[in-house]
UniProtKB/TrEMBL annotation:
It comes from Mycolicibacterium hodleri. InterPro entries: NAD(P)-bd_dom_sf, PRISE-like_Rossmann-fold. This is SDR family oxidoreductase. Pfam families: PRISE. Residues 95-358 form the PRISE-like Rossmann-fold domain. Gene3D superfamilies: NAD(P)-binding Rossmann-like Domain.
Amino acid sequence: MTVDSNRGRALVVGVTGIVGQAVARSLLADGWETYGLSRSGSAVDGVTAVKADLGDPNGLSRALDGVAPELVAITAWTRKDTEAENIAVNGGAVRNLLAALEPSKSTRHVALMTGLKHYLGPFEAYATGEMPDTPFHEEEPRLDAPNFYYAQEDELFSSAERNGFTWSVHRAHTVFGYATGNAMNMVATLCAYAAICRKRGLPFVFPGSETQWNGVTDVTDAELLAEQILWAASNDAGHDQAFNIANGDAFRWRWLWPQVADHFGLEWEGFSGEPRTLEKAMEGTEGTWREIAGEHGLVESDLSRVASWWHTDGDLGRNIEVLTDMNKSRKAGFTGTRDTRDSFFDYAERYRAARVTP
């Protein structure tokens, strides 16, 4: 059975995140009555906000009583100190959410966003041991290591079998997107880094590894991911399947980095000897950002709500090639693509226009 997008009701879980905001906007544009769940109780314009904690089963049941969504998109996760905690918290979140929705018997499709740690391993064993060759394919067997993505999938599969809804899993790479109040975003992070470099008269130094500087990689546009989620929900070929989702092109940072520097009017430096991390280079720059925010009338003077140095360092510091295969999705009928260079600069300009970055 396919979801009728002309008169459906959808629930976006993690609606304040970089992917959740993109999914919510896509649903609204497609005519869905859209609800958005978050701990803060905030949501994008046009979305009915639902305030709840995924770790509180009783609170979830109360908050979701009467919502009765047909389509559910799960885009939220919480990072903990150990993978055992990640599994308990994030697997439990999916279990609690789907249990809270069971009484309404309304759910027809659930989309779960995960990522490439499905192939690379969890934080504790990231990119170590045996891994499949790139580009990564969806049919690769799970790695022999505990992984909260696997726990989330298992909770999804169990509930789908019990309740009779279809599902899809969407494995994204590094996400480019537009989200306010969400710092796990490489575009906003690099925009903030560029502004601080310009203010302090510093070169725009690539912070990552030699492998990421010279190697081929890809990324995921948040709006493309949203498109794939809606497609999977509305097409039989998208049901009960896991799909990679990346822009469809490939690039090298040694090609894109000089263009980013030029966009911001900065001199640049590539990889030289060893990674020169953002966490180290940007230590103590909170005051500089407050000065920048005051000079340019920015909406956010708290640097931690704009930039996430550790997150970008992690993506750019990997010592392995990371590339995904999109053929399964294309063969099934989803043929959406994005130009990664255009994606970066489009989002950079959106942040500037919204006065998130100068």
